[in-house]
Amino acid sequence: MNKAARSSIPQGGATFLPVAAEEKRAVEEIVFAVFAERGYREIIPPTFEYLDVLAQGLDAELIEKSYKVVDRATGRILVMRPDVTAQIARMVAMGMVDQPLPLRLCYSANIFRYEPEHAGRDREIFQIGIELIGPKGTAADVEPIMVAAECLRRLGITVFTIAMGQGAFFNALLRRTGVSASVQGRLREAAARKDVPRMEVLLHGADVRGRAAKALLAVPGLFGGYEILEAAGRLAPRSEDCRRPLARLREVWERMTAAGLGDHLLLDMGEIRRMEYYTGLVFDIYADGLGAEVGGGGRYDHLIGRFGREVPSTGFAFDLDRLLQLRALQSGRAGAAGVTRKRR
Asked: Rounded to whole angstroms, how far apart are CA atoms 249 and 243?
């Protein structure tokens, strides 16, 4: 075996050399300090789960991307964690649901997802985030966004945009078409990519026309300021399942503006998660210099119920690698020196 082969690391994996490791630890300490001040307590999920158990909280696409091995002791299939939120949902349902609510939990963990080499995505992703278990009001929608903004402020990151959407609005429009769950999933995925031509093909194939098709096709293009709520309202049928999510989003916007974050806000009704467990408000955080979001989250009221008793929940996570890159960019440094990833 030649020297290059011996020194090679797996595609999409990460190696943190001393300087980068120190920076990573420093960022974690700052973020965890904010979490602790807000009453969040650390939880450490296992690296491996039984696939047949965790699969209840995972979408089919994520299961397909998971790394799986056979448990030599039992013969059951193990999965390396592809998603922390699903793990925490299982942990809460199976061991914490009888504790007084709300639960405020935080974590720092790496997740593993297979991505094709041409996709340009990492296969090992370091996340740091929170889960707020129990509250269902607008204040609970706002809290994770406020915590994320405070983390960025403490890290010296002052230029960022919080793009907020409302998954329940798009899902309500989807349900009113009467198309199958599989078609709904493909439409949701196309909308998340803002692929309107693909949406047109899917709607035509499902024989969805008229106002219903027009409303769905318009959603990916609805982004901007407060006026977007009015535009979305004009598209929506006068039904409670469509109007209620918009009213909720309006209240979140007003609360965030009152808290002094108005200059950082953007409404994007096309901010739609591919993860099917999101049920309401969703948000992503963007910053100049990065080609992708630095973090995001949202509301997932039915995920814990897949493992046991249903409990409303919301949360968010930062991509720690991107957070390090952003901090370096906004402080004028070249980058997070000493982080090695093998990419094609």
From this structure: 10
Tokens of 90: 């299982």
Q: Is-above-0.85 flag for pTM?
A: yes
CA angle 263, 269, 271 (to 5 degrees): 85
Model confidence at 15, pLDDT cuts 50, 70, 90, reads confident
**Could you report the per-residue pLDDT of 111-161, keeping only the tens digit for each?**
999 987 644 578 999 999 999 999 999 999 999 999 999 999 999 988 999
Write the secondary structure of the chain as one string of H (helix), E (strand) and C (coil): CCHHHHHCCCCCCEEECHHHHHHHHHHHHHHHHHHHHCCCEECCCCCEEEHHHHHHHCCHHHHHHCCEEECCCCCCEEEECCCHHHHHHHHHHHHCCCCCCCEEEEEEEEEECCCCHHHCCCCEEEEEEEEEECCCCHHHHHHHHHHHHHHHHHCCCCCCEEEEEEHHHHHHHHHCCCCCHHHHHHHHHHHHCCCHHHHHHHHHHCCCCHHHHHHHHHHHHCEECCHHHHHHHHHCCCCHHHHHHHHHHHHHHHHHHHCCCHHHEEEECCCCCCCCCCCCEEEEEECCCCCCCCEEEEECCCCHHHCCCCCCEEEEEEEHHHHHHHHHHHCCCCCCCCEEECCC
Residues 6+ apart with CB under 8 A from 1: none
User: Domain 13-338 - what CATH class?
Assistant: alpha beta
Name the residue among 188, 171, 128 with its Cα closest to residue 315: 128
Highest mean pLDDT among 32-41, 111-120, 212-221, 262-271: 32-41
Cβ-based neighbours of 227, under 8 Å, separated by 6 or more: none
- From the number of C-beta atoms within 10 Å of its C-beta (0-12, 13-18, 19+), residue 336 rates as buried
The encoded tokens of residue 257 equal 């503006």
